[in-house]
Design a protein that fits this description.
The protein is an alpha+beta fold. The protein has 17 helices and 30 strands. The longest helix has 16 residues.
Length: 664
């Protein structure tokens, strides 16, 4: 959540009371925000040591969608209304002398549709800035840019000294070589092309428009540049402490966020206007000829049911009482003259976070006080129980932990190389779920194996004494076109042993232990009569040392047919298994990767006599076990041999009988 730092003394003056830290912390909690820090003690300590100090600040965490609380003005205003010291401010549009016909005009050129098509303006007249209010004005713009504006990608704000400009204004888009002006805090003019290469402090914003054939630019009637959004404003129209009339421009790629941002900047600082809470609108003319007056600070109207609010909160309040609670949250509510169960709610332009009746209910609960809500037993009784896969995972965790292994919880996202190349595996582009726009190379795909996370954990804990024995029982993800969401999670268990010797027998013992707890017996691969059990089958896998790897195969009780969705629950995909499909028929020869005479005979008989072919045992390839290949260890920067185990848990899940079911 955003954290807003406000001047402690200034805020208490606005609230009309000096609070102790505990009192203000309680007030914040009641209102639904959180006091993160009070720097008073730090400032006093620095002063005693003779160090330069600033005024004490309060750092307050606010909800991410409460844009009206991103500055001290909004916080103080909302808290005064909550404390019932003030009523909700009535923001007004004030037209210039001569009325609507004399509104300042801004015209949008058609070329702006290629880069940032939406534009809005507002004017604050006769503003009186102090150093602190001026700093707050700048800080609010920065907070909005980092929050709803998504670092200026969606919305960009420009503020200008209106007295240095001559309207009407033009919002255009020109080729970079045709744009030239003096940027903010510079003493010479630059072309847009030069700005893109010479200003390092603007580097984080340059990619937003760098590849566009045209750049957005705002001019006044004398061809003086106001700003080149979203990059930088002009030095000519720079705001200072002496600025009296402020022109606000907002450009955007999202019209909804455009309206929210222009409203926030205008309403929050309209309290500094000579005529408090007044804003002068601007007429914006779109390329189509449509004329729109900005900002639109009209309230939204909706309804909320009294019965719904009482039902959710456990209260029995009348409509008038709920209306009083909502007024503490800057909402205006009155009982409907037609339906006594309905409240007519007026939502001010400063509360774009209100979308639904449940938001109104939440504000009513905050106004009443969450700690004051009655504590009652639910009207209906429910009994919780774990999912089958969670119960199974807990069994694995408990048994392996009791065996002396340490559980780890690495992230489910990893890099493409870690998931494939570093394990000597090939990406078939059909297995892994990939992020479309990863922020870093470290988080590119959702893992299809637990091994990368386990090996990275060992890498980061190389200073720990040997042996290192860690495990994880968690989800991996695979693409699945058969599902609506196009992907599915599969629960895997994996473990890695790292020591001066490979310790293959140790991970084999770990596998035997968990299979014993799952009541799965060890059987021979050649035992066709066994109806249930597991066995190991030598396999060549590039992740493991040649001749030191095996597949784990599982024969279910009753040998039921397997669905196609089950056929990729193995930690390795078909392309990663030299043997191909995840389900294999138990081989009779020593060579597992080549069809034997019996396999050929069985295939021939199956085509003629399906009943015979279907009666042969089908074993599920559920995982791998082996000594990791030296090249894998080298890529993960591990200097000792390691043995690893990974298999899917889902074939072992058992149906859980609901606790409320009739067992008779």
């Amino acid at each position: 959540m955003p954290t807003v730092a406000v001047d402690k003394e200034d805020l208490y003056q606005r609230l009309g009371k000096v609070y102790t830290t505990e009192e203000f912390d309680h007030l914040c909690f009641e209102f639904g925000i959180e006091l993160d820090d009070d720097t008073t003690a730090e400032v006093e300590e620095a002063a005693r040591n003779g160090q330069p100090t600033e005024r004490p600040q309060l750092k307050i965490e606010i909800p991410a969608n409460r844009y009206d609380l991103l500055c001290i003005e909004g916080i103080a205003r909302a808290l005064r209304v909550f404390l019932q010291k003030d009523k909700t401010p009535a923001y007004r549009l004030v037209f210039p002398t001569g009325g609507e016909a004399n509104l300042l005009t801004a015209t949008i050129a058609p070329e702006t549709a290629q880069v940032r098509p939406f534009f809005a303006c507002a004017i604050l007249r006769n503003v009186k800035f102090t150093p602190r209010s001026y700093a707050s004005f700048i800080d609010l713009q920065d907070k909005l840019h980092q929050n709803i504006c998504r670092r200026r990608q969606l919305v960009a704000i420009g503020t200008h000294d209106l007295d240095t400009l001559k309207p009407p204004f033009r919002y255009e888009a020109r080729a970079p070589k045709n744009i030239k002006f003096m940027p903010l805090n510079k003493t010479k003019e630059y072309t847009a092309e030069e700005l893109m290469t010479s200003e390092k402090h603007l580097a984080k914003y340059l990619p937003i428009i760098r590849d566009s054939p045209v750049y957005p630019i705002i001019y006044d009637s004398q061809e003086r540049v106001l700003s080149m959004p979203p990059i930088i404003n002009s030095e000519h129209s720079k705001i200072t402490l002496d600025t009296k009339n402020i022109f606000v421009d907002v450009t955007a790629t999202d019209e909804t966020k455009l309206n929210i941002v222009v409203n926030m900047v205008a309403t929050m600082f309209s309290e500094y206007a000579a005529d408090q809470y007044t804003i002068e609108p601007v007429r914006v003319v779109y390329p189509s000829g449509k004329s729109v007056i900005y900002p639109d600070i009209s309230s939204r109207h909706t309804t909320a049911r009294v019965s719904y609010i009482n039902g959710c909160t456990g209260l029995s309040l009348k409509a008038e009482e709920i209306g009083t609670l909502l007024q503490r949250m800057s909402l205006i509510a009155h009982p409907s003259p037609i339906d006594p169960d309905n409240l007519l709610v007026e939502i001010p332009c400063t509360r774009p976070d209100i979308f639904h009746e449940c938001d109104i209910m939440e504000d009513a609960a905050i106004g009443y006080g969450f700690n004051n809500l009655p504590k009652t037993f639910p009207a209906t009784g429910t009994v919780a129980q774990p999912l089958a896969v969670s119960k199974l995972s807990d069994l694995v965790r408990r048994e392996w932990a009791m065996a002396g292994w340490v559980e780890v919880l690495p992230l489910i996202l990893c890099s493409h190389d870690e998931n494939f190349g570093w394990l000597n595996r090939v990406d078939d582009n059909k297995t892994a779920v990939k992020l479309a726009n990863p922020k870093t190379a470290e988080y590119q795909v959702i893992r299809t194996s637990l091994l990368p996370g386990l090996l990275k954990t060992i890498r980061e804990n190389r200073k720990h004494p040997l042996p290192v024995k860690i495990f994880e029982a968690s989800d991996v993800a695979f693409k699945d076109p058969a599902l609506e969401r196009q992907a599915r999670n599969v629960r895997h268990a994996g473990a890695v042993w790292c020591n001066k010797t490979a310790g293959f027998e140790v991970v084999c013992g770990l596998l035997d232990r968990i299979m014993a707890m799952l009541e799965v017996p060890r059987i021979l691969a050649s035992d066709k009569k066994a109806k249930h059990g597991y066995y190991l089958l030598e396999n060549e896998d590039p992740t493991f040392f040649p001749g030191r790897a095996a597949k784990i195969l599982y024969r279910l009780k009753g040998n039921p047919p397997f669905s196609s969705s089950q056929m990729s629950q193995s930690p390795l995909t078909d392309t990663q298994h030299p043997t191909g499909p995840a389900f294999v028929t138990s081989p009779t020869g020593a060579e597992a990767t080549k069809p034997s005479t019996f396999d050929n005979l069985k295939s021939t008989l199956s085509s003629v006599l399906p009943s015979i072919g279907s009666s042969l045992p089908k074993d599920l390839d559920i995982g791998v076990i082996g000594i990791l290949h030296p090249s894998v260890l080298e890529k993960f920067e591990i200097n000792f041999p390691c043995s690893a185990l990974e298999f899917t848990l889902e074939p072992f899940m058992q149906e859980i009988t609901p606790v409320w079911a009739d067992e008779s």
